[in-house]
Amino acid sequence: MPLRRSGDFLYWCAGADPTVVDHAHLGRPERVRYGSIGMSVLLTGTAGGLSMLMVLGMVSHGFRLWHLPAALFWALFIFNTDRWLVSSINYNDPKPEGATSKRDTRGDLIKRRLGRLCTVLARIAMGVLIAFAVSEPVLLTMFESEITHQLSITNRQNEEATKQAIEAKYAGDFATIEAKYKATQDAVDKAAAELKTAEAELTKENADGNNTGQGCSLKRGSPCKAYQEAVELKQAELRNAQANRDTARETYTRDTAATRAKVDGEIGAKKADDNPDGLLARQKALADLTAANPELGTRVWLIRGVFLLVDLLPILLKTFASTSMYERFVRTAAADLLAGKQRARATADAADTRRAEADRVIDRARIDAFQDVRLEEVAASRDLDLSGIKLDLDQQRIQLELDHELEVLRMRWRHRERVDAEGLLFEGTEVHPGKHDPALHDVTEPGDDGDPSGGVQGDHPTDPLGGPSGGAGKRPKPDPRSVLNDRWVIVGPLPDSDQAGFSDLKLAYDLHEPEREVVVKRALTIGANRRAAAYSIKKDQHFHAKVRSRHVAPLLDLGEHELFGPFVVTPRYPTTLVKRLRDEPLTLEWSLRIMEQVLGGLTDLWRTANCVHLDIKPANIALDDNDDVKLIDFGLAKAVRGTDDLVSGEESKFTRWYAPLEQILRAPNWVSSACDVRAVGAVWYEMLTGLRPLHREARATGTSPLRITTEQFVELLRTTDPIRPKRLYPGLPASVDSLVMRWLSRDPVDRVSGPLGDRSHAELAREALAAVRADVEARGQLFDLIPGVLGAQRVGSSTDVYRRGADEQQTRQR
């Protein structure tokens, strides 16, 4: 049993399946063949691991523990590569190698043989590389002593050559040092010779007195004295020369030692570089040995040949031997498996084809059924359209009758107003006529095309159709025709209202809470602008329903009544900014707070409803009991991003004096919150000065603000800037004046500062307003009264005069 298991292991090493090799039909020769191949592969891998241990030991000059995993990895790499070389089988061709088919052409045969040749050459090349990779470390270990001796000889030769080269390199430096020292020695020798000559002459003079026979005299001027001085001079020169020589000797010794140290250092460094002891150096030493000793070279190549034969023999046997039974068996099994997969794929493709055909049949049936249903729907739709047309005609007839009745009632009420204005008695009260001033806030200014699109309208006496303006009291049973959505009961026209240009405002109350009064806004049903009015209400419903803000009037309900038309329901607020500008004195702090809340509402409008208001004016700024802003009337609103907008031909409406130039001219990409910032600036200008921007400038050109045309107004916007508020209100802080004029700029880019990103112009304007508030508070001017509004308040309005006269008359009667 152990022998059987070892045989299976050898079969596995040869890349064969042991269960197939042990098959009874393969025979003993097949088992011997694959056992031998497995043994060869195993030996090659083992030799590779041992050779890697030898190499690492040589490189590290000893054994280390990390050598074992490295050698094991190398052995497994050699083993698996060799196993792949001897076990690869061409599964694409189940025929025996060399067999041909009648269908094979000459080109197919050439291609097959070339492919086989390339495969054989690649396997042999890899086998040669593996054999040399395994044999080289073995050779280096076997001839280690000879290689070490050869390395020592080579290193000594390299050291000698290096020393000679470095000595030659510094020979000039040594010669220079020697020459400097020799020059000083020559100077000493010369000085000594000259001293010796001078002493000889002095001795001679002393001996014979210069042949005078009188001896040597040391008196000044005598020849002996001159010789004596010459000797002393030469002695001094000799001493100087000797001192210079001593200095030169020290320099010579120091420079010679430094140069020698440099030479020795370079020799040592070069010696370390030129005396390698690694793998490449040993291979070079082995090559030198084999070149010098042919007998040794023969032995080396014999060992390499043995390793090469051991590694290549299985590959050659695999390549050139006839196809084994095992390979034929594996190819046949692979062919059967491939054929089975192909049959399964063909079956799946056929099923997919049948399924697709069934889907096409079902789709055709579905299309036919859809066409039949569509034809029936078209027929039914035509019948429904005819019924709808008839219903619309009936609705228009009824609406015209109601409008006629309403117009008669309005004419009667206007007649009663004229009677009151003429000072006649009405219901027992004498009323003095009032004087109407068209330059004040109680006038209605035309919008574009002469329509009052949101102009400011003053107060009027209570419409009798509306009943009392405050407090519901006990409500009578409502007419079912005046109830909207089974809840909102129409009382009549909204008293004291600032009527919108396209809208008809009605006073109503909640049927569930009769004391709760609301405002119902619907489109005008008569006149040339009824289509624009209907579109305005649709836009009001569309955008108002999306807004979420504490500074926007909440939408209580919306809908469309068959007689009343489309409508929206909002709370009734006690006043608007129009009345507040006319009736009460204002402070800077109050105006700043109102502007902050208006900008806050516009910011929420931009964030939550993805739109801009485009009709900001005092009439559309309602105030609740706490003087908090509630924005109303979204009839001109437009979306700023995406496609969330309504489309209509009525796209040219605006409110004069508040709308910017780009909104009036419909410039490219004009829709942005910068339009609302300009309108807010116009409202603030009106709060600070008492008149709207460019009112004074229009009068200066001789044009009445009430009769100015659109073309004249556009030209005024293009060419004229409104007078600065500070000139009309000298005590106004400069920061307020600058911010108002910035918001009134013609260019939308100049109205705010700072990067927009995903924020609106209104949000940036609100940040600028916060900085202005801080400046005004620092100056202590927050609660200064605004003189422009006080002046307007003192002048009053025609309605105020009318009311004061009526009150005085009633007092006298009491």
UniProtKB/TrEMBL annotation:
The keyword Transmembrane applies. PROSITE patterns: PROTEIN_KINASE_DOM. Keywords: ATP-binding, Coiled coil, Kinase, Membrane, Nucleotide-binding, Transferase, Transmembrane, Transmembrane helix. Residues 491-764 form the Protein kinase domain. SMART domains: S_TKc. This is Protein kinase-like protein. Residues 427-483 are annotated as: Disordered. It comes from the Bacteria. Residues 181-251 form a coiled coil. Residues 429-444 have a biased composition (Basic and acidic residues).
